[in-house]
Amino acid sequence: MLNQYTNPVKRAMAEGKATLGSWLQSCSPVMAEILAEAGFDWLLIDMEHSPLGLETLVSIIQAMKGTAAVPFVRAPWNDFVTIKRILDCGTYGIIVPYVNTREEAERAVAACKYPPAGIRGIAGSPRGNDYGATKERLKVISEEICVITQIETPAAAANIDDLLTVDGVDGFFIGPMDLSTSMGHFADPSHPEVQKTIRALEEKVLPSGKFLGTLTSSMEQAEELFRRGYQFVTVMSDTTSLGAMARERVNRFRTLGLG
After folding, report:
1. Are 97 and 68 in contact (CB under 8 A)?
2. What does the pLDDT look like over 20-72, one tens digit per residue?
3. Active-site residue (options: 17, 49, 139, 247)
4. Is 49 tagged catalytic?
5. Which ranges of 19-79 does DSSP label H, i.e. alpha helix?
6. Distance CA 197, CA 192 (A)
7. For residues 208 and 14, what is the distance between their CA atoms, to the nearest angstrom?
8. How far apart are CA 89 and CA 49, in angstroms?
9. SS3 call for 46
10. Which domains does the chain show, CATH number per domain?
11. pTM for the model
12. What is the spatial distance between Cα 213 and Cα 249, in angstroms, rounded to a whole number?
């Protein structure tokens, strides 16, 4: 069971260990419960590319309670009000999309940290602060938040040296589809130019003390990434994985010629 005052994923990666997760894009507490019970280290709850609202986010995180899975949320944007409200729901990790510069990365960190390190407003009453945590416990909860910025543009890749020096950024998440598209290779992460950029990022990030993450669709691909030093990898998505399974079953039935 997850101790709600510690973040075992953040601690494991600080020790050099690899962790495995799944996207949650269906906005479903039931699906969250199923995936959390399956044994994933964390679930990446997507608020950037889903209609998920804060009320349902609370229900999703509640559905994960009692399991070892840690709730991480991809924020819809690098906006301190939105990030503050997500943290108040009880997430222990924030992924901030489209961070291209040192200034943008510093802004993301500030949104997640209490003063003087940041600008997050203090409120003891929200769920994320145990509905009235003591000052000491509030400090512990804040320190356990894991801050991740996404690398999904050539600008972010070019600025990686600056981004690596930002205090409070725990790791980076490469978005291969957006990165390839923004490089002029529409939805083609396998393009040699994109792969060259990803390898250059690996050479910078992996020895830096900050972790590197990305997404994949199979354990075979995930195993290769882990061997290269990645520590935070999604191996499936609830929506795309279910969709792929459904299409395979339907297509197989159609080939039987019975319907």
Report:
1. no
2. 999 999 999 999 999 999 999 999 999 999 999 999 999 999 999 999 999 99
3. 49
4. yes
5. 29-38, 54-64
6. 9
7. 12
8. 19
9. strand
10. 8-255 (3.20.20.60)
11. 0.95
12. 31
